Amino acid sequence: MGLPIAGTLREVSVNLRQRRASLFRALALPGALTLALQFGFWFTYSGWMFERWGLQVLLALFQGLVWALFAVSCHRVLLDDPDQPTPVEGLWLGLRQIRYVLMAIVVTIPILVHWVSILWFIFFWFDLNDIVDVPRYVFRAFSWGLLLPLQYLSSRIALTLPAAALRQPMSFARAWSVSRGNGWRLTAILLAAPAAISLLSPFIERPFSTLPVVYAAFGAITSLIVGVVVVAGLSYSYKWFLNEYRPLDI
Length: 250
Prior knowledge:
By secondary structure, the chain is an all-alpha fold. It is built from ten helices and no strands.
């Protein structure tokens, strides 16, 4: 039997509700900092600082680091790590967190390739003066058509992340081997929340498009919620693989 998509997403929904108190205690501080950085990123993206690419890249990098610390604590709470994280530990860059960050960099390389390709598509494929005439669905179709195979590659090795959060050994080669036959199922679980938001965002964002502060707040809150759902989906997928392959010493 393969990784159950609906069952895993149901487990995510149930456990996020049941563990909301423990998640809030462990993630309040790193979550607040993550939310602030995401607000800054979305504000520079939507407001009068749109053309300041250097600032956006700097915010994105720092936000990625803080998000990794946030994700480590989230994995540990959801997977019942015996050594539960403290609120302050969610901001601490220890050996566990450094290992997670290094693995996350490798895991996200396909996603970075996706975004670089999107920028190339926007700034080199079209003349800058004609971009506004291109329907948004053309960009979305290109983006998702490119994202799916790259996300598949990322998903196959993403099992290393919850393992790193729990200080359990798993190499990229082992993660690729263990996820064989379940790659697209794992991809569907990790893309469920981002895909839903992507489909709804054109309708939700339109009323806020002329209000940079409100737009940034909406983007930051939405990104945080989607991120938590993705981390939870990865956590419970890892739990399923761990139970399925325990005889093979995962």
